[in-house]
């Protein structure tokens, strides 16, 4: 689709590194770079073996000055990332030399690529679909092993395969219904609508199954917000330090040390957690501490997991009872802390305030019992075991919204079928659902949507 347009950009991260890469793609990529390249052989780059690496120098054609020693990776279309002719210039990783090489490439006839334009060309040239293109940026931005695993499997096209199967089945039903519109004299509408209504049920069940993965998929992709709450001096900050294995939060014997939230990231079971240490919850006249307590209560409502830390060295206080009451309906873990000192509280004392995802005696001081949190995370995301087909998990909010819209359209179509409404209304809803599912994979191409999506990518990708 870009036969006359050749683009270039730096494909490596800014800063000093061992290697810097300038990526060039388009019809003029080979002759353009050939005019800057000086190697031992005089054979033009277009005539050298595909997928080969060529050693030489990049020379400024105006001054004859060598800019850097380089390796050229040659990839002739359609067997390249963009399905066009592509050359990657690998040079030394200093920012000055990388920018100078890019300047020479641009002054020789290429233009600077827009963010995500290489991947956009791969999509527009039919090498990948839209779910695979989005998986590229998910791989780059993956914040844990689980998120990376989902993105890699979606890059293989697993989700697109599911979506295309649903679209094929829908299109078959739409075609059958349209026959009854085109040939009303055949008197086949009643039989056809009954069959289509029955066929819609398993399709909608598959869509509901995909949507059921959305919460887990979002947590895998974005990480799990985990709020640590409790009364002052229960050991919240000590717990956070123990989980992070570093002294991130200040720990003292003075109640109310933590007055604002402290946030840090960590990974458990390959899943990213956003840990939030909150102010101790208690009645206080201190204005600053009171604001911190209010913020802690807000996180109880917003977090994916609430970790409630109870001081196990003394009897359950009224403050702790009130905190436990606020956790009803939340996914919560209760840690009875200071198990290395005393056990004044047991799981039986906590049970009346439950149910909770887990109740465990721990010691934030020596790390005893902290593995319970990992089991809860695994249960929350995977239902106890890692799913094998993670590529068919909905983790992208765009995919989730489109799937919900398509399912609502099919629900309306089925209700209209059962109500005996005109086939014209039913076909309209079903075809809209078919097109909406196509928006997920990019099969229903809408230029504004594609432009917005690829604008999220980084330069050089």
Q: Could you characterize the architecture of this molecule?
A:
This protein is α/β, with parallel strands linked by helices and 461 residues long. The protein has 16 helices and 13 strands. A 7-stranded mixed sheet has the order 3-4-5-6-2-1-7. A 6-stranded mixed sheet has the order 9-10-8-11-12-13, sandwiched between helices. Strand 11 (305-311), helix 11 (318-326) and strand 12 form a beta-alpha-beta unit. Helix 5 packs across helix 8 (214-222), helix 6 packs antiparallel against helix 15 and helix 14 (397-419) packs antiparallel against helix 15.
Rg: 29 Å
Largest sheet at a glance?
7 strands, mixed
Unreliable stretches (pLDDT < 50, length at least 5) are 249-259, 384-388
Tell how many strands the DSSP assignment holds. 13
Mean pLDDT: 83
- The percentage helix is 40-55%
Strand content: 15-25%
Separate helix tally: 16
Q: Separation of termini?
A: 18 Å
